[in-house]
Amino acid sequence: MARPAWLQPRYRKNTYLFIYYLIQFCGHSWIFTNMTVRFFSFGEDSMVDTFYAIGLVMRLCQSISLLELLHICLGIEPNHLLPRFLQLTERIIILFVVITSQEEVQEKYVVCVLFIFWNLLDMVRYTYSMLSVIGISYAVLTWLSQTLWMPIYPLCVLAEAFAIYQSLPYFESFGTYSTKLPFDLSIYFPYVLKIYLMMLFIGMYYTYSHLYSERRDVLRVCPMKKKKM
């Protein structure tokens, strides 16, 4: 006797993924809408306190996104681990290490720019993924999800690099995360950030190449699906 559909492992997996993508979509949509309303209400003044207004929700969304690495390891999501790992660690380091730890950086315009770029990408990505899980596909949305990142992702990396650059004087002044080790050794965190700054662009090249190959494969298959229908 066949089990009910809701007991099938694939059904449970798709239900879980749909709920996950929906939560992320709602979170990022709230952030983007909040930023838009605040900008039209308060103008440039809203950009200065962007982090204070929406930083908590942004940190929550980015923390939850770490589950995607677990999804890939368990085979729940059919993605490659390394490119996703690089994208997530970029955001976690910039958001939690660079921005959250330095109150002076939180007031910079670059924080608002970063949040706009991140949310634009994620709203489209999670919408596409959410609909794909339940078997709904729109050619325009597929094209947008596979194309929007091409101009925005490099701009994200540039904004992340600029945020690191603006944070360096504060890490040097306050000594945040710098520490002394035994045997007259020490970790000077601004040097760590400068090294990471170089690695950021190396990671961008790898991730961009992977996403471009993925885009080519998806857009090649999409017309074939439409013909079968």
TrEMBL record:
Catalytic activity line of the entry: a very-long-chain (3R)-3-hydroxyacyl-CoA = a very-long-chain (2E)-enoyl-CoA + H2O; (3R)-hydroxyhexadecanoyl-CoA = (2E)-hexadecenoyl-CoA + H2O
Keyword rRNA processing: no
Keyword tags: Endoplasmic reticulum, Fatty acid biosynthesis, Fatty acid metabolism, Lipid biosynthesis, Lipid metabolism, Lyase, Membrane, Transmembrane, Transmembrane helix
Transmembrane regions: 15-32, 126-144, 188-208
Pathway stated in the Swiss-Prot or TrEMBL entry: Lipid metabolism; fatty acid biosynthesis
Highest taxon of source: Eukaryota
Name of the protein in question: Very-long-chain (3R)-3-hydroxyacyl-CoA dehydratase
Species this chain originates from: Vulpes vulpes (Red fox)
Originating gene: HACD4
